[in-house]
TrEMBL record:
InterPro entries xrefs: FAD/NAD-bd_sf (IPR036188), FAD/NAD-binding_dom (IPR023753), Ferredoxin-NADP_redctase_2 (IPR050097), Thioredox_Rdtase (IPR005982)
A single BP term in Gene Ontology: removal of superoxide radicals
Swiss-Prot/TrEMBL keywords: FAD, Flavoprotein, Oxidoreductase, Redox-active center
Record organism: Niastella yeongjuensis
Pfam family, one: Pyr_redox_2
Stated name of the protein: Thioredoxin reductase
EC number(s) from the headed UniProt entry: 1.8.1.9
Amino acid sequence: MESEKIHCLIIGSGPAGYTAAIYAARANMKPVLYQGIQPGGQLTITTEVENYPGYANGVQGPEMMVDFEKQAARMGADIRFGLATKVDFSAPPFKVWIDEDKLVEADAVIIATGASAKWLGLESEERLNGFGVSACAVCDGFFFRGKEVAIVGAGDTAAEEALYLSKLCSTVHMFIRREEMRASKVMQERVQRTPNIKVYWNTNTDEILGENKVESVRVKNVKTGDLQTIPISGFFVAIGHQPNSDIFKGWLDMDEAGYLKTIPGTSKTNIEGVFAAGDVQDKIYRQAVTAAGSGCMAALDAERYLSAKGLV
Ligand code: NDP
């Protein structure tokens, strides 16, 4: 198996990973960054970003991530396509396997693997995934232009995606399991002001129906027990995310949901020399700008660690 020894390994290519790479490269740590299965991270499946400082007129998420990558590359970060599949953090240098066929040994590791979409867990949802079921309205909404679709979820993501779909689709049926939305007030108001978004309160998805493609959805009112079947062509899931931390189980401390634990005010994990940044360790803020900020912290913490050991 091919192997390589480096100073600083960064796993993940969202705002946290690329910011860590910019700082680490400028500090002469010669960082190597592996992008994972979704180069650019979650922002590559979003549209307009209006709240990232520095873009006075807003920016498209994918375009912003290309800017991040270019900046990290210009500073000298070695950016590579590949997925970290296994780690051994028993002692430095830390071992990380890439795509199961390459071993990277690093003096310091910065984990910025982010989070991924959650699913309802229905058999029909899995069977029809890619055949009308999607967790990304921005990626797949286009396929349902002029058609009726449904979305489940009541947070900011669901509100944002319902609004996005309302511009493409004839009707958006929005299923909310409680009698209130978790989304911010401004987003709730926008949803409720949109005539072609039909909100169903206290409503759970019972089953998505269709043989080879989504044809309808059966929902249940949790208060009355009433079932209703609604014809739709697309079914979107927007019920939150889970941290991409599976490969670190048994090595790093994490909470019950799998978010990595860091020492408050730092990016340090329970293993000295292993740092975490971005959504994989943040279930509260989860913003591009907070992820970028924590990526900066991780690179600075890693630099202090490596220079204290005389390694950079
Ligand atoms: P959230 O965790 O905020 O919301 C998830 C939603 O899905 C909740 O309303 C939850 O319902 C619902 N849900 C969870 N499981 C199920 C289920 N099995 N069946 C039905 N509904 C379910 O996730 P988001 O992805 O929406 O947002 C994550 C964070 O990112 C938040 O902090 C949000 O504010 C932020 N964000 C900000 C944006 C912006 O500022 N422009 C845009 C998008 C996200 P319940 O409420 O009942 O728990």
